Amino acid sequence: MQPRKSGGFENMAESASRPEEARPAETRPAEEPGAGWEPVIVGFLCNWCSYAGADSAGTARMVHPPNVRVIRVPCSGRVNPRFILRAFQRGADGVLVSGCHPGDCHYSTGNYYARRRLVLLKRYLEYLGIDPRRFRTHWVSASEGQKFADIVREMTAEIKALGPGPKAKLGELV
Amino acid sequence: MGEGGKGMAPGPVPRTTKLVEASGLDGWLRAVAREARVWAPVKVDGRPPLFREFGAGEEDRLDLEAVRTVNSPKGALLPQTEPLMTYAMTKDAESGRPSLDLERAAPGGPVVVFGARPCDAAAFELLDKVFLTGDFVDDHYQARRAKTTVVAVACPRPDEACFCTSFGLSPGGTRGADVVLYGRSGPGVPVETVAYYAVAYTERGEAFLAAPAARAAGVADVPEDEGRCLEEVVSAFRGLGTPLGDRLGRIDVAARLDGLFDHPYWEKVSARCLSCGACTFICPTCYCFGVADCGALGKGVRYRYWDACKLPHFMLMAGGHNPRPAKSNRTRQRFMHKLNYYHHRYGEYQCVGCGRCVESCPVGLHLPLVAGEVGGLEG
Amino acid sequence: MPRKPMLDIERMRSAEEALRREARRLLADGVVSVFLGHEEGWDGLAVPSFATSPEDAEKLVWNPLVAPHLAKYLLDRLAGDEKVGIVVNGCGSLALERILKDRRFPRERLYIVGIPCTGILDPARVADLPPERRREVLETGRAEAGLFLDRCSWCDVPNAVVSDILVGEPVAEEPTVHEYPRAARLEAMSLEERFEHFKDLYERCIRCFACRNVCPACSCRECCLDQWEPLWLGRATSVPEQQMFHFIRAFDVAGRCIRCGECERVCPMGLPLMDFNDKLLKDIAELFGVERPHVPTDVEPLGRFDPQDPDFEEGAE
C-alpha cells in the first residue's frame, strides 16, 4: 500500500482526512486576545538531535522569536501522546515535537515508533476538534539550527494569527 | 413514615394549590433560570432524559413524560466535582517569608430542582440525614440546601423497574418536596399531560408558586368546582402501586443482614460485577466522595468528587493496603451500607426504589436482586 | 459489503444443549474448577455465569441475548493454577485472543469451547420491544438488522479464532471490506461541529469506568487512570479532564481494540464511545496497511514500524 506523504515544513497542513481542503478552518479564536498577546508554544525536543539543533541556532546567534518553551526528552519516542493534549489543556497555544531524522535515532528505532504514533496523533487531534496547524512535528538534526529557527519563526507567526489555543474553549481543569 | 400504597396515613396538609398548563413549563423554567440554577429532566432525542442544568441551551426542553432520567438530580445538591477552596503560596517580597492564602469556595446562589420524581425528592431527605445531622454538619452542603427549592412531579406510570413502594414511598409522595405537580388527568392515562395541579407543602414552595416567574407562566388558582377532582387525583397518585414493588413487598432485610457478613453468597453474586461506578453514580442516595487537590507551582484548588465503593481503589490507603481487595468485599459493602449500616444509624433504608440501578447495571447486579435473594439466606 | 447478521434459533438450541453437556462433563471430571458462560438473569436477559458444579452447568444458556463478553473475567482468576472453562463465539474469541496476546492469562489454563455464530441481538434494543414482538423475535429468530449488536454488522469472524473444541458446524467465512462509517460521518463535519459533538459527550460522561472495566484491551495491572503518583488524570469531571480520560482510553488501546463495542453497550449514559475507537481503527488500517486491525496479532501496529511508513516531512526515509 502506498504510504501517504504530506508536504514539508513549509506548512502544508496535513489534512489527510479531507484531502480536498488543505487548511481546515478554525474560523475565529474563542476570544479576541489583547494587543501584544504572545502565543505560548511547548516544544518537545529530543536530546541528541533537535535539542542540539536548537542549541546550535542559539550559539550561531540566529534570530527567532522566544515563544517556544522547550522540554528536553531523551528521544522523540519518549513523547507520550497525552503530553501534547495536556499541554494544550494547560494553556499551550501550539505544540511542537521534533526528533532525529528517521534512520539517525540515537537509540536506533525510537523515532520510528514516534513517527507512527505522531502521524496517527495528528489526525486524531484534528478529529477531536483541535486545529491541526497548532500541532507540528519535524525532524531536526543537531546541525540544522537554521531549520529550527525557521520552524519557530513560522510557527509563532501562524499561531499568533490563529489566536489563543484550545484551553479557551475547554475551560479549567477544576 | 409510610406514605404510599393502599390504606396509608393521610399526607401532609397542602398550603396552597394552583393550576399550570404543561405548555407554560419551559417558559417558566427559563424565567426562573435567570435568577437561579435550575436542574430539570432535559429532553434528549430518542433516549431517556438527563437530569441537568436547564436553560443553558436555548433548545433545552423539559421532559416530564419519561418514567425516569438516566442520572439522578443529586448533583444539584452534591455536585460531582465541587471546589471547596483555593490555595496559593506566596512569598513576601521583602522578607521572603512564605504564606499560605486559603479562600473558601463561594456558596453559590439559589437552586431549583424541577421535575424530580417523588423517589428523587425523598432521596434528598436521606442525604440530609448524612450531611446535616450528627456530630459534623457539612457546611458546603448545608449552604446549598438552604437555597434549594424542590418541585417534584408525581409519576403517572411506574414501570417494571420502579419499587419505591417497597420502602414505604409512593408515586404521589411528598417527602423532600416543596411543591408536587400532579397531572390533572390523574395517573395511568396514556396521553401526554396537558395541565398540572401544583400543590405547595412548605413555605418555600408557597413562595415559589407566588413568585413573578410563576405568575408570568400562567400559574393560576384552581377553579372552585375542581376541589373534589384535585383531592381524587392526589389520592389516586398516592395509592398507585409499582409492579416490582408489589412483587418484592416491603423490603426489611436489615436484621437478617446482621448475620450474613461472612456468608459465601457475596462471592457468588459479585462474580459478574465489573467494579465500575455506574450504579453508585446514577443512584440518588449514594453520597461517598473523595477529596483531591489540583494545582501546580504552589497554587491550586481543593475539590471533592464522587467516589464509588465498587471501584477497586476506593479504600486503597497510603502505603498500599487495600482492605477491600476482592469484588466480594466491595459488593457486600455496597449492599450492607444501603440495607444494614444506614438502617442501623438512621432508622430507614438508603434506597428509594427509583430503579436506575436496575436499568443501568450492565450485568444485572442491582438492589432488588440482592434484597430479594438475601431474604432467603440463612445466617 | 457488510455481512447481514441473522439468527438460527434451532442451531442455537442444539449448541446450548451441547454446551451444557460439555460444561457438565468438564466440571464433573474436575478438568476445570469453574466454567464461564451465560445464564438467564433478571428480565430474561443474559448475564455472565460462573458454574462451579455440574448442577450450575444446567443454567448455562446459548441464545440470541448472549452479548456480554467473558474473557475479561479471567483476570479475576489469575491466582492459582486451576483450569478455567470458557465459551466463546467469534467476537468473544477475539476478546479472549486479546487477553492471551497481551499475555495476561496463560493459554494452558484454559479450556475453550467455541460456538460458530451468525449474529447476537443487542439486549437493550430487545428490552425496548413490546412483549409480544420480543417473544416472537426470540422464538422465531426473525429479527431486523437494527436489532443486532453493532459489531455483527461488520463481523468477519463467525467462527472462534481460538478453541479447544467446536460445537456445531462452522459458518462459511465471507471476505469483508472494512468500513468505518461512524468515523467517516464525523470526519465530514467541520472542526467546530466535531468539537461540540465531543464536548456534549464529555459533559454527559459520569466517569464510572464501566467502559474501561469491560474492555478486553484494557488490562493493565495498575491503570494509569487510577494512579496518584504520577497524577495523569485528576478526579474532576470538567470538560478537559473528561477529554483526557477518553483520549487516554482510546489511544492506549489504539491498535489493540477489537472493535467489539462493549464499551458503548455498557455505558450507563449511552455515550457513542466507538466514535473514538473507530477513527483510530480506520487510520491505522489506512496509514499502516493493516487490513483487519481488529484481529489480535502477536505484535500490534503501534508496537512495530516500517522504514517506509508515512511521514509528515517530504523526503524523510
Q: How would you explain this protein's 3D organization?
A:
- The complex is a heterotrimer of chains A (174), B (379) and C (317).
- Chain A is of the alpha/beta class and 174 residues long.
- Helix content of chain A is 34%, strand content 13%.
- The N and C termini of chain A lie far apart (45 Å).
- Chain B has 13 helices and 12 strands.
- Chain B is globular and about 75 Å long.
- Chain C folds into 2 domains: 9-166, no CATH class; 181-302, no CATH class.
- Chain C has 11 helices and 5 strands; from the N terminus they run H-E-E-H-E-H-E-H-H-E-H-H-H-H-H-H.
- In chain C, helix 6 packs across helix 11.
- The radius of gyration of chain C is 20 Å and the shape is globular.
- Chains in contact: A-B, A-C, B-C.
Keywords:
heterotrimer; B: 379 residues; alpha+beta; 21% strand; C: 317 residues; alpha/beta; 11 helices; globular
Show the helix and strand layout.
The complex is a heterotrimer of chains A (174), B (379) and C (317).
Chain A: E1 41-46, H1 50-59, E2 68-73, H2 81-89, E3 94-99, H3 110-128, E4 135-139, H4 145-162, H5 167-170
Helix pairs in contact in A: 1-4
Chain B: E1 16-21, H1 25-32, E2 37-44, E3 47-53, E4 81-91, E5 98-104, E6 111-116, H2 118-132, H3 139-146, E7 148-153, E8 179-183, E9 195-200, H4 203-210, H5 212-216, E10 220-221, H6 227-238, H7 243-248, H8 254-258, H9 265-270, H10 278-282, E11 289-296, E12 299-306, H11 327-346, H12 356-360, H13 367-374
Parallel strand pairs in B: 2-6, 6-7, 7-8
Antiparallel strand pairs in B: 1-9, 1-10, 2-3, 4-5, 4-12, 8-9, 11-12
Chain C: H1 9-28, E1 34-40, E2 46-51, H2 54-57, E3 84-88, H3 90-101, E4 110-114, H4 123-127, H5 131-140, E5 165-166, H6 181-187, H7 191-204, H8 210-214, H9 239-252, H10 262-266, H11 274-288
Parallel strand pairs in C: 1-3, 3-4, 4-5
Antiparallel strand pairs in C: 1-2
Helix pairs in contact in C: 6-11, 7-9
